[in-house]
Amino acid sequence: MNLEENIRQWLFEEDLLREAKYDENADFHYIIEFPKENIMDVVKPAGKDCLIVACATQVAQQHLDLMKQADKKTQKDFIMDLNFGLNNFLVDFELQVANDILQQFVVTEQIFEDGISKNELFRTLKRVFKAKLHCIWLIDKTFGTLQINITPSNQNDMFI
């Protein structure tokens, strides 16, 4: 089997595969749900020898409102704590911040082809998800907890 067949089979075996997405910049691009109710992307960029696992998250409006109510020091300290915390996960990340308010964040990790195995793919999925979870928990800890019902959606897909 080739790389794409292996990845598709592993995702299918674990019931994570939700859809294959057309992407002109990728050899293949899968939308997965890992864990339940969390949408992630597994992408093999065209011409690259790696696989990218990514999760993009839009900050809930209710949390944005709480962040805006916080004082400037709390806002700035939160962004600094978030950077330090994410750095410890050894993942790549991008924070979209406007006026010291986190709007969106994207967590990514790459696996080079010579290291791709089912075990490494799932360790990477877990690391990316736990980094996302760290962001959510830090928002809750700093600004307050919200009860939000989330329905899986591709709207936060980082490649849309």
Molecular structure report:
This protein is an alpha+beta fold and 160 residues long. It has a single domain (3-143), classed as Yope Regulator, Chain: A. Helices cover 39% and strands 29% of the residues. It is built from 4 helices and 6 strands. The chain has helices spanning 3-13, 61-69, 72-87, 118-143; strands at residues 17-20, 26-33, 39-45, 50-58, 92-98, 101-112. The chain has a 6-stranded antiparallel β-sheet. Strand 5 and strand 6 (101-112) form a beta hairpin. It is elongated, with a radius of gyration of 17 Å.
Features:
alpha+beta; six-stranded antiparallel sheet; Yope Regulator, Chain: A; 160 residues; 29% strand
Strand content: 25-35%
Alpha carbon gyration radius: 17 Å
Count of helical stretches: 4
How many domains, as an integer? 1
Pfam family, one: DUF2299
Protein name: DUF2299 domain-containing protein
Give the gist of this structure:
Helix content is 39%, strand content 29%. The chain is built from four helices and six strands, in the order αββββααββα.
